[in-house]
Automatic annotation (TrEMBL):
Protein name per its UniProtKB record: FYVE, RhoGEF and PH domain containing 4b
Claim: rRNA-binding is one of the keywords in the record: no
Keyword set, alphabetical order: Cell projection, Cytoplasm, Cytoskeleton, Guanine-nucleotide releasing factor, Metal-binding, Phosphoprotein, Repeat, Zinc, Zinc-finger
DH domain location: 92-279
Record organism: Cyprinus carpio (Common carp)
GO molecular function, one term: guanyl-nucleotide exchange factor activity
Length: 653
């Protein structure tokens, strides 16, 4: 025993404390006490104090009894604050420990339901030979051992400790002693996936098995929850221990003797929780797969632990023949893409799977289209889709998650930004028929891409080759060949693809001996042209302008080629630019401000661009070409149609 100076000692008394209480957290800290004493017994004071309701600026005006009263009030306030803070901390620790106890009681009740009700009744029925006993063991694994551990060891110890909380306010020692036994959860968690499969399999296979489960699930003790839900609780319990123990450690003082025991038990529990969290994610994924399975009308077999949903969402699909858009829905998994069509339903969302595209060998490419922004293309062996997202961010998300799952992905600044209207129908011979092509749209060509004859709505209509995607006439598509991407079914193909796929030779028109005409030059694009895009063209003021696709190719930099459409394989005419005069037409009644002319003797060619910027781009290139200089490459004028390269396609030329 020794004497401790307190507020009473200043008032003329002394109080004695045992050594064990000298450092008790509820005793006022010595530095605060010394500060108060030094303040109130100092002869100088530079601040105003309130004594009996009157401000006092100088401590010398305060008598010693008044100082004693003032100091006594301040010290009492400090001690009261310390007591309140400690009481709050102790209350929080008690609440955490009590929550652990209450949830443990509820958990043991669930374990009793699993082991003593579900497992016991199914085992009893299995003993009659209705279904194998091994099935029951495979489903419930070691849930009996888990139930015994919690009901006979952990729960009784927690109840005893909480009844003695006033004298022993700690739980870390109990958890440190029993936490190693939580390793038995590893067996249950590892068996969880196969248990779910067995449960689903025998619920469908055995009427008696299903009847027992349905009967128990209808009881009040089940709380209208399924057996699968109750079986998930042991998987979720260990992460719950980890969460409560982390919260307990945050509220526990660092110098508390229970701190080391709590940290030790947390390390053991965290290892077990890692396995449980993985099983929880798998269970949530299976639950989501079941929801999608119901959305698809149970027609697609997607409920498999190996399948993982990556992304889903509504999207627009651009039609292959024209540029109309249709509402569609995508489900992207780790191994496939489901392209679905919404169907009418009074109960929730329902879809019909139109195409299943395998991830292996899939290609995802960003595209650009003025009429339809936020577009990208998915090309698989089974089908090629051009899709439109709801926003630029949505498009970026689809491309990002898709490329991360694909065996092959393309997304580079140099290749993506210029490959805008991607011609994915470009195939090497060994790829022909193995991958679905991107169809050239009807409005991208004005003539057959094989025989170069112009289309008309009566006698020469448009047809698509299912192998290369070209738009051809009926004569050039009067062939059929089996395509591997379509399950080796016979499909309409063009003449060139037919001979390549069947391995036959064309005796009538040898491929190697065919010569091109002077206008039979493919409509070049940004990748191999100085400039390309749509312009309004006319040679006579009295005649209406015609919208043409204009190209200045890199291999022939002094010639301007005019095509009916971006994918045409034959130009309507050419203009040798060398020696022409370029006139920037000013605004007039006959000419809009975006017009310019090419003049040479009596030959006059009038052009009109869509914007002033496009006009200046063309003038910059043409002005160099007419004097024999090689122009600089310009960005595509029409980004949505800046592609038409057909090199490497199965063309006779």
């Amino acid at each position: 025993m020794w004497t401790l100076l307190t507020e009473n000692s200043i008032l003329g008394s002394t109080k004695r404390y045992p050594d064990s209480q000298l450092h008790h957290p509820r005793i006022m800290p010595s530095n605060i006490f010394i500060d108060h004493v030094a303040l109130f017994f100092s002869t100088q004071c530079s601040f105003t104090l309130n004594v009996s309701g009157f401000p006092v600026a100088d401590m010398t005006q305060v008598t010693l009894p008044q100082r004693r009263v003032m100091l006594s009030d301040l010290i009492t306030e400090e001690i009261t604050g310390c007591f309140q803070q400690e009481q709050i901390k102790e209350l929080k620790l008690y609440k955490i420990a009590n929550e652990l106890l209450q949830t443990e009681r509820a958990y043991v009740t669930r374990l009793h339901l699993l082991d003593q009700v579900f497992c016991a009744k199914l085992t009893e029925e299995a003993g009659k030979g209705t279904f194998p006993v091994e099935v029951v063991k495979g489903i419930f694994s070691n849930v009996g051992s888990i139930y015994t551990f919690h009901s006979q060891f952990l729960l009784p110890d927690l109840e005893t400790r909480m009844s003695q909380w006033a004298s022993t306010p700690r739980i870390g020692d109990i958890l440190a002693q029993l936490a190693p036994f939580l390793r038995m959860y590893a067996e249950y968690v590892k068996n969880f996936d196969s248990a779910m499969d067995l449960l689903k399999q025998w619920t469908e296979r055995s009427v008696q098995f299903n009847a027992i489960i349905q009967d128990i699930q209808s009881q009040e003790a089940c709380g209208n929850l399924t057996l699968q839900h109750h079986m998930l609780e042991p998987v979720q319990r260990v992460p719950r221990y980890e969460m409560l123990l982390k919260d307990y450690l945050k509220k526990l003082p660092e110098d508390d003797p229970d701190c080391s025991q709590a940290e030790k038990s947390l390390n053991i529990i965290s290892m077990a929780a890692t396995h449980s969290n993985m099983a929880i994610r798998k269970m949530e994924n299976l639950k989501k797969l079941m929801e999608i399975y119901e959305m698809l009308g149970g027609e697609e077999d997607i409920v498999n632990p190996s399948n993982e949903l990556i992304k889903e969402g509504q999207i627009l699909k651009l039609a292959a023949r024209n540029t109309s858009s249709m509402e569609r829905y995508l489900f992207l998994f780790n191994n496939m893409l489901l392209y679905c069509v919404p169907k009418f339903s009074l109960v929730g969302q329902r879809f019909t799977v139109r195409t299943r595209v395998g991830v292996e060998g899939m290609k995802v490419l960003e595209t650009s289209n003025e009429d339809y922004p936020h577009t990208f293309q998915v090309s698989g062996k089974e089908r090629t889709l051009e899709l439109q997202a709801s926003s630029e961010q949505d498009k970026e998300d689809w491309i990002k998650v898709s490329v991360s799952q694909l065996c092959w992905g393309l997304r580079g600044e140099s290749s993506i930004k210029t490959l805008t209207y991607l011609c994915s129908c470009v195939f090497q011979k060994e790829e022909l028929g193995k991958r679905a092509p991107r169809w050239i749209r009807d409005n991208e060509v004005t003539m057959c891409m094989k025989c170069k004859e112009p289309f008309n709505p009566l006698t020469r209509r448009r047809h698509h080759c299912r192998a290369c995607g070209y738009v051809v006439c009926y004569k050039c598509s009067d062939y059929k060949a089996s395509l591997r991407y379509d399950g080796n079914k016979l499909n309409k193909v063009c003449k060139d693809c037919y001979f390549i796929l069947t391995g036959r030779a064309d005796a009538e028109e040898p491929v190697s001996g065919k010569k091109r005409g002077i206008l039979e030059v493919l409509a070049q694009v940004s990748g191999n042209s100085f400039l390309c895009g749509f312009l309004q063209y006319s040679t006579d003021r009295t005649k209406p302008c015609q919208r043409v696709w204009c190209v200045i190719p890199q291999h022939d930099a002094l010639v301007l080629y005019l095509y009916g459409a971006p994918q045409d394989v034959k130009a309507q005419c050419t203009i040798p630019l060398l020696g022409y005069q370029v006139e920037d037409v000013q605004r007039s009644v006959d000419h809009p401000p975006t017009s310019f002319r090419l003049c040479q003797s009596k030959s006059v060619h009038c052009f009109t661009a869509d914007t002033e910027e496009v006009k200046l781009r063309w003038l910059k290139v043409i002005r160099k070409a007419v004097i024999g200089e090689i122009p600089e490459c310009q960005t595509p004028v029409d980004d949505n149609l800046a592609n038409g390269c057909h090199e490497g396609v199965p063309d006779g030329s």
